[in-house]
């Protein structure tokens, strides 16, 4: 069935390119984009139309790195760097997800909050708990979120959140058995090299190959972490090689952070088709640094954005986009490399993520992922604004109260 959305359509068809269609028409067939038109083609006249009048129709966000069981500690624990932060706060918070009733409550509100803020695609870490992970997947599916969720594997150096190697492998298989969701699929999730024994990493690598499963983890986030990985794997020159050693370094592998990845590590990412997920707020909050995003992109590394809650304090990806622009300006002041523009950062927070999942923003042939933004709560402007200016202002000022509607995988979910 053909349906039509009418409004001010703004999107980023490629990195750095902004396309604006004032009073345009987004034509859908069974939720799949057929095209964007400045005037409605004759053949679609009379099709059911949702008229959003003067509002903005933008692509919705993709959050390619966040920790669901850290949602309860959002905005807390900002006084410690990564490794101390994990031991003092994070593992204890995640251990609570043994309790499935608690998991249901927290994950339902997280899923609803994601959609309310315009995030329709995710690559998410759960905790080590199989049952809570399946509950998380169910709640995301119910709310209309799409993408990947991983039961976390962690059989060493993980305090109260730790599992045994045998348990980790057995529970991973039980979790995979239970993954029967339409829009939420499993991703193998060794937490990071320090929290996984060699035996566990090897088994996960085997499973990834055997069942053709994607992989997500953390890479080169923090100096202390990198030194520790070197101690644990003296036979490997660089952090990334500890994943490569066990078959976890492959096309589509998501690596969060890569703050300290040097030219050699970045070249290995570009060559293998491994993605860097940039989490600017988290990288400042837990004192990791600022990733060289511009250089990564120039060197052919695929980059998307992540909120990384609760290292990151912002679940709203609009704010994550803004923070990545700010962080890139800090980097620019240090190095002289150009900072990220608003359309560039917005592309990384939307279309880049859709590309990871085999989509392409608003391009024809892909199910619609979009949000409608209402600007009435923004300050009255001093003059008439162009659509490009309105887009910039919306990225900086929008919050969930400005999002009138959200579409995910072709369906309206808000
Ligand atoms: N490295 C290993 N675990 C974590 C985590 O939970 N958050 C962040 N930011 N880095 C990690
Ligand atoms: Fe993380």
Describe it.
This protein is of the alpha/beta class and about 425 residues long. It has two domains: about 1-60 and about 360-410, Urease, subunit C, domain 1; about 60-350, Metal-dependent hydrolases (TIM Barrel, Alpha-Beta Barrel), CATH 3.20.20.140. It is built from 14 helices and 17 strands. The protein has helices at about 80-95, 100-115, 130-145, 165-180, 200-210, 225-230, 240-245, 265-270, 280-285, 295-300, 315-335, 340-350, 350-355, 385-395; strands at about 1-10, 20-30, 30-35, 50-60, 60-65, 120-125, 145-150, 150-155, 185, 190, 215-220, 255, 275-280, 305, 370-375, 405-410, 410. Helix 3 (about 130-145) links the parallel strand 6 (about 120-125) and strand 7. Helix 2 packs parallel to helix 3 (about 130-145). Guanine binds near residues 67, 191, 221, 308 and 311.
Brief sketch in words of this structure:
This protein has 414 residues and is an alpha/beta fold. It is 37% helix and 22% strand.
Mean pLDDT over the full residue set? 98
- Secondary structure: number of strands: 17
Ligand inventory reads:
guanine, fe (iii) ion
Output the radius of gyration: 21 Å
- The dominant shape is globular
CATH fold node name of the largest domain: TIM Barrel
Biggest sheet features = 7 strands, mixed
Whole-number count of domains: 2
Provide the helix percentage: 25-40%
The CATH superfamily name of the largest domain is Metal-dependent hydrolases
Order of adjacent strands in the largest pleated sheet? 3-2-1-4-15-16-17
Q: Give the oligomeric state.
A: single chain
- What is the architecture of the largest domain at the second tier of CATH? Alpha-Beta Barrel
| Low-confidence residue ranges | none
- Which structural class is indicated by helix and strand composition? alpha/beta
- DSSP summary: helix tally: 14
Percent of residues in β-strands:
15-25%
Distance between the termini: 20 Å
Name of the level-1 CATH class of the largest domain? Alpha Beta
């Amino acid at each position: 069935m053909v349906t039509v959305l009418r409004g001010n359509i703004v999107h980023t068809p490629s990195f750095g390119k902004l396309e604006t269609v004032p009073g345009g028409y987004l034509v859908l067939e069974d939720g799949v984009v057929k095209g964007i038109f400045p005037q409605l083609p004759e053949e679609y006249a009379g099709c059911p139309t949702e008229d959003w009048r003067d509002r903005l129709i933008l692509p919705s966000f993709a959050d390619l790195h966040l920790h669901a069981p850290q949602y309860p500690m959002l905005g807390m624990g900002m006084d410690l760097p990564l490794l101390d932060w994990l031991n003092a706060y994070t593992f204890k918070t995640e251990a609570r997800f043994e309790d499935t009733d608690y998991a249901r409550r927290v994950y339902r509100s997280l899923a609803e909050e994601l959609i309310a803020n315009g995030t329709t695609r995710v690559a998410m870490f759960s905790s080590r708990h199989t049952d809570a992970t399946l509950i998380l997947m169910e709640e995301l599916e119910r709310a209309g979120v799409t993408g990947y969720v991983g039961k976390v594997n962690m059989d060493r150096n993980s305090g109260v959140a730790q599992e045994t190697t045998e348990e980790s492998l057995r529970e991973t298989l039980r979790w995979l058995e239970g993954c029967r969701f339409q829009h939420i699929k499993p991703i193998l999730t060794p937490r990071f090299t320090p929290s996984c024994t060699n035996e566990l990493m090897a088994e996960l690598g085997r499973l990834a190959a055997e069942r053709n499963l994607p992989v997500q983890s953390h890479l080169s986030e923090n100096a202390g972490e990198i030194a520790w990985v070197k101690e644990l794997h003296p036979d490997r020159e660089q952090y990334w090689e500890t994943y490569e050693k066990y078959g976890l370094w492959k096309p589509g592998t998501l690596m969060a952070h890569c703050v300290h990845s040097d030219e050699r590590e970045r070249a290995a990412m570009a060559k293998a088709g491994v993605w860097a997920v940039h989490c600017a707020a988290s990288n400042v909050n837990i004192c990791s640094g600022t990733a060289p995003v511009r250089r990564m992109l120039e060197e052919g590394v695929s980059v998307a954005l992540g909120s990384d809650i609760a290292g990151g304090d912002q679940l709203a990806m609009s704010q994550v986009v803004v923070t990545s622009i700010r962080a890139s300006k800090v980097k620019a002041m240090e190095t002289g490399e150009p900072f990220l523009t608003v359309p560039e950062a917005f592309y990384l927070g939307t279309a880049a993520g859709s590309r990871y999942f085999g989509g392409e923003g608003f391009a024809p042939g892909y199910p619609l992922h979009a949000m409608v933004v209402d600007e009435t709560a923004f300050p009255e402007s001093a003059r008439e604004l162009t659509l490009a200016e309105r887009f910039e202002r919306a990225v900086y000022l929008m919050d969930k109260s400005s999002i009138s509607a959200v579409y995910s995988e072709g369906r309206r979910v808000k």
